[in-house]
Structures are given as structure tokens and as C-alpha cells.
């Protein structure tokens, strides 16, 4: 669960109650994608408010919304499970309040890219296909399927391949089948 509740900190007669800290959207993120955090807190002093939040060692400004304070933080460059560390609040009067909150996020692997060439040989109704798949982080966890469909999106033929670089062909293909 990525929601943390109820923590109170006091410094220089300012009491801050953290009601909740959560991800704005529970989802997995892409590398370097900005992550929105919503913080709900109350301050006992009427002349103080939260201006900034320290997240993973960096200060971020907050935006007041109907659901709480929105903090948009930098994403992660590595795939896998990552932890967001929220360590301090900075009030408008320069007081800093230490808090210790953590949120866990999943960062997706990079999408594979595909380069391909094809050549249709009309006389033999043969479609030659050369494919180069680049999957640096092994995001694909199974066999590679190549589907040949017609203009109506109907499957004509399927080939299952087990390598990242291959040449294959489809036979008995008419010109309008692969447009």
C-alpha cells in the first residue's frame, strides 16, 4: 500500500500533522517519467504553510489542489522497484520539519524497438521479411510472433521466432494482403 498516514512533527512551536502521503496515480511509470505525489497535512499555526518538500534529496515546490498538496518529482532512470524518500518539509517561514515517508513505485523497462525491411516478389507471391529486434533490457519475456494480416485486419499467417535478428518469408501472399 502506497499510502502512509498520521505523523506529527514539532519544531519552533509549529506542529505539522501528516494525514497522508500517496501517489496521485497508482500505476507503473516509464523511465524518467515525472511522478506526482499528493500530501495531505495540517499545521497548527495559522500563519504557516508548506512551500517545499524534500524528496530523494532534492527540494520541490508544492501546488495546492482540492485533494492536498501536489508535488511533481523527477522520475527514475533505472527499471524495477524504486523507493521515493520524503524527508523534509519547508514552511513559508523557512522552518524545516523532518519527516520520514516512503512510497514504492515500479519503473518499466525500455520498450524494444523493431527495424524491418520487406520485399514482395509478385511473380511467386512471396513476401520476404528481414527483422532486427533491439531489446536491451529483455522486456520481452517470450517468443517473438510475426503476424501477417490483410487490410481487414484478418490474420493470414503467423510465424513464431526465437531470435532477435531473422529473415523469414510468407508464401501465397497477394499484393493487397499486406498493404
Give a quick set of tags describing it.
mainly beta, about 180 residues
Q: What does this molecule look like?
A:
0% of the residues lie in helices and 61% in strands. It is built from no helices and 15 strands.
| Tally of helical runs | 0
Alpha-carbon distance between the two ends: 48 Å
Q: Strands across the major sheet, in which order?
A: 1-2-4-8-7
E-strand count? 15
**Main pleated-sheet profile:** 5 strands, antiparallel
Strand content: over 45%
Order of helices and strands: EEEEEEEEEEEEEEE
Flag low-confidence runs: 5-12
Kindly state the percentage of residues in helix.
under 10%
- What is the average of the pLDDT values? 84
What is the 3D form? rod-shaped
Structural class: mainly beta
Indicate the radius of gyration in whole angstroms.
26 Å
Helix/strand layout:
Layout: E1 4-11, E2 14-23, E3 28-29, E4 35-43, E5 50-55, E6 58-61, E7 63-65, E8 68-73, E9 80-91, E10 96-107, E11 113-121, E12 126-134, E13 144-149, E14 155-161, E15 165-170
Parallel strand pairs: 3-10
Antiparallel strand pairs: 1-2, 2-4, 4-8, 5-6, 5-9, 7-8, 9-10, 11-12, 12-15, 13-14
Summarize, please.
The protein has 179 residues and is mainly beta. It contains no helices and 15 strands. A hairpin with a 2-residue loop joins strand 5 (50-55) and strand 6.
Amino acid at each position: 500500500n502506497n499510502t502512509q498516514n498520521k505523523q506529527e512533527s514539532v519544531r519552533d512551536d509549529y506542529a505539522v500533522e501528516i494525514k497522508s502521503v500517496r501517489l496521485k496515480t497508482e500505476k507503473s511509470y516509464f523511465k524518467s517519467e515525472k511522478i506526482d505525489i499528493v500530501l495531505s497535512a495540517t499545521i497548527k499555526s495559522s500563519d504557516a504553510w508548506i512551500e517545499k518538500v524534500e524528496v530523494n534529496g532534492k527540494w520541490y515546490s508544492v501546488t495546492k489542489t482540492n485533494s492536498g498538496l501536489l508535488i511533481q518529482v523527477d522520475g527514475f532512470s533505472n527499471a524495477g522497484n524504486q523507493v521515493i524518500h520524503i524527508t523534509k518539509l519547508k514552511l513559508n517561514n523557512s522552518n524545516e520539519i523532518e519527516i520520514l515517508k516512503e512510497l514504492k513505485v515500479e519503473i518499466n523497462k525500455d520498450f524494444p524497438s523493431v527495424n524491418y525491411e520487406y520485399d514482395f516478389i509478385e511473380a511467386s507471391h512471396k513476401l520476404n521479411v528481414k527483422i532486427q529486434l533491439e531489446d536491451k533490457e529483455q522486456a520481452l519475456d517470450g517468443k517473438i510472433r510475426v503476424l501477417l494480416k490483410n487490410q481487414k485486419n484478418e490474420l493470414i499467417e503467423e510465424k513464431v521466432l526465437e531470435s532477435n535478428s531473422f529473415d523469414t518469408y510468407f508464401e501465397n501472399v497477394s499484393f493487397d494482403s499486406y498493404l
